[in-house]
Amino acid sequence: MPLNTLVFKSTRTRPEFRLLRDPPVRVVERKARRRPRPLAEILMDQGAIGPETLLRAIALQRHQDLPIGEILIAHGDISERQLLNGLCAQYGAKAINLATDPADATLAALLPAKTAIALGVLPWRRAGQALIVVTNRPDQEAAIRAAFNPDQPLIVAIASRSQMHDALTRAYGPELARLAEARVPQQVSCRNWNARRWMPVLASWALAVAAFAWTNPVVLAVLAYGIALLVFFCNATLKLAALAAALRAPVPEPSRGIAAALAPPRQPIPLRRQPVVSILVPLLREQDIAGQLVKRLSRLDYPRELLDVILVLEAGDRTTQTALAQATLPSWMRAVTVPPGHPQTKPRALNYALNFARGSIIGIYDAEDRPDPDQIRKVVRRFSECPPEVACLQGRLDYYNATHNWISRCFTIEYASWFRMMLPGVQRLGLFVPLGGTTLFLRRAALEAVGAWDAHNVTEDAELGLRLVRNGYRTEIVATTTYEEANSAILPWIRQRSRWLKGYAMTWVTHMRDPVALWRSLRPRAFLGFQLQILGTVLGFLAAPLLWTFSLVPFGLPHPLDPVLTPFGFGMIGAGFVLALVLSLTMSFLACRAPHLRRHRLALPLMLLYFPLASAAAVLALVEMLLRPFHWAKTAHGKFSHRRGMVATPGTGTTP
């Protein structure tokens, strides 16, 4: 309810605040229905809040489209019980204890699941011809009544927010879980992938290749090496183009140079209304870091009443549930449990939790993430500045355990090249941006318009980035960083990378079912870029072992292409390899120009040992694509939350 004027009257007992109503003209227009008293006035009379608290809440409400009760709850000024009592007094409604008086399960069918969750309302009981509905948002009474049959008499009762969440989950959870498995349209989803029907085809091709190799080994060698070299040089060309584009308009780095340090800070553009931002944090068997997660996310500098953090748990994950039971969640953080179902993947969990999110901006964090404290403010400001077709903002990722061993150092260099060079370059080339699994923020309207996440794709982030482009949206890279934990063991690294490559392969197969439609939706440049970015990545790692054989030629060892290549031809191929290596090292060197990354430049030669691991991951990815296409290989985290070897991250106060 709008509060136009605040009048202070001095009395002998205590200060009294009287909230004046709207002008008389508006009151006359609504004579048929008396407007309830302001909630703040009721809470003052009940002694739940004092004058200073009231003034602060009203000041915050001027810049936010939130009920004043939500603001007071978020700041810990009132309890759920006090808010419930105030709402009951404001609307003259009865309070319902859903824990002792649960709703009639047969009445849930009267309201669609998404409508019930969005309005926070649940059909409770029948009273003669009337239907009693329970809500924690009585201010939406008009929308609640409009959701039912106009001839249905309604009696609105009120329950606490936590009890409403539990009741809605019990009533609509299974239905929402089924919907979460198939939100993406079938023609662009990989859920109907059937590896069994491809087995005879692959077996026939294997026999044909073996027979051809027996009769024409030289021709087969020329074809195999020709494809491998073509993929290699196409990937190098894409990398060169992305590097040139990134250097043409480099992403500004914080504290870059003396001039930048001496320049006065730019004043931010004021925002009239700041949006609610929902952060989804999928958790699975996170016993070591569930408690630390609350502390890390508490560093986010954004109004608490506008921050909606949802910890997404699986129903059978007792490990995380036990860990969270030992942690005290603030009022702006809550847990949502995903009912059992198939497949048990991160995108399915995100689809389910999206129904309970309150924000118009949806962000994703991983359990071990340490975002920059001002990250949400940067994202909100950038969304307010860019056009609506910019549907996603992708932040940069870095690692806080970069110095643990050589794998973590190489992982850090690779991510620096990817997020600080490759992705900005790809964005400026007009190609699609493969999203990362964390630190991405999406406009909710655009996310729901494209069907959210494909629950069966194990690289749901990159696939979502492609569907955004196909539907006319764009992604931008925003200059903010999240620090997470690098996978620093060889076998877990291979399993993680195989999942990513399996998702890449599945994405390519799915969207190439109709190449003409893909061509039309992406346009020629982005279509060709898609082939290089997705297919080229998978084929590049698979073909790498063939290219390694060229290193044997200088030692006088025989090579399968000896019958068709002269020493000059071998020399040209070798020169191309050297130039591509210089290109990769140059990109990595420039990507590590940030002060906290410069120390890792000494580890650049180790990248020659690092990337061959991805070839093993690519082979494993193809095997799993045939045997376990929807299996999610969980990456273990939380091993470095309290250990040495962590780098100091700006703004987090982490001690090396």
Structural class: alpha/beta
Count of domain modules: 3
Strands of the largest sheet, in order across it? 8-7-6-9-12-11-13-10
Q: What fraction of the residues are assigned to beta strands by DSSP?
A: 5-15%
Oligomer: single chain
Shape: elongated
Search tags:
disordered C terminus, Spore Coat Polysaccharide Biosynthesis Protein SpsA, Chain A, 3-stranded mixed β-sheet, GMP Synthetase, Chain A, domain 3, 12% strand, alpha/beta, 8-stranded mixed β-sheet
Question: Would you kindly provide a brief summary of this structure?
Answer:
This protein is α/β, with parallel strands linked by helices and 656 residues long.
Description:
It is a single chain. The chain is of the alpha/beta class and 656 residues long. The chain has 3 domains: 1-87, no CATH class; 93-180, Type II secretion system, protein E, N-terminal domain (GMP Synthetase, Chain A, domain 3); 226-249 and 277-627, Spore Coat Polysaccharide Biosynthesis Protein SpsA, Chain A (Alpha-Beta Complex). Helix content is 47%, strand content 12%. It is built from 23 helices and 13 strands. The strands form 3 sheets. An 8-stranded mixed sheet has the order 8-7-6-9-12-11-13-10, sandwiched between helices. It is elongated. The two termini are 51 Å apart. 38% of the residues are buried.
